[in-house]
Amino acid sequence: MATSEIEQRWIDKFQENLGPIRKVAGWTTQQLADELGVARQTVSNLETGKSPMTKLQYLALRTVFSAEIARREDRDLARIIKTLVDDPIEQRIRERRAQEQDGEAVADNAPVNTDGGNVADNAATEKRKPSAATLKASKTAATGKPTLSTAMQALAVITGALASGTAAGIITYLMFPDGGPNKR
């Protein structure tokens, strides 16, 4: 499963904030591990950065948190994810597009600062940078811009909608049409 440059940044930003997101959800490391079906140590290693988060782990985590947001109608959790993960990445995408429109050359491997000023914090990201072949495969032929997989786009949209509260009821109904996971 190839990961584009922008997807990797999204994954890295989510991993960087996994501990606070888990705590806002009110879960222990063990509870999150149980939700994911992995060992507690796996979650701990992701939170501490001992293990790099894979795209599959990212998608599983976003799905688990999105389901929890919908189940509890927890706008605070949705806002935290949107504020800590989605907004900084989306801002960087907008900045990059503006640079491209202004005719500035934007290198694929240019350091990205998504946390307000400390490029040194991106050292771990730089070590896991995708290969040129991966980047080339992840760009559309027409625009040459990085693309996001459908799953990553859907999760970002769902989290944004849940943060605003407009879609929480609809998603809850779609996920639990009988009234909830415990009502049977």
TrEMBL record:
PROSITE patterns: HTH_CROC1
Source species, domain of life: Bacteria
Keyword Protein transport part of the UniProt annotation: no
InterPro entries (UniProt xref): Cro/C1-type_HTH, Lambda_DNA-bd_dom_sf
Transmembrane segments: 154-176
Keyword vocabulary terms for this entry: Membrane, Transmembrane, Transmembrane helix
Region called Disordered, residue ranges: 95-142
Biased composition (Low complexity): 131-142
Example GO molecular function: DNA binding
Domain HTH cro/C1-type residue range list: 21-51
The protein, known as: HTH cro/C1-type domain-containing protein
Organism: Bifidobacterium longum subsp. longum
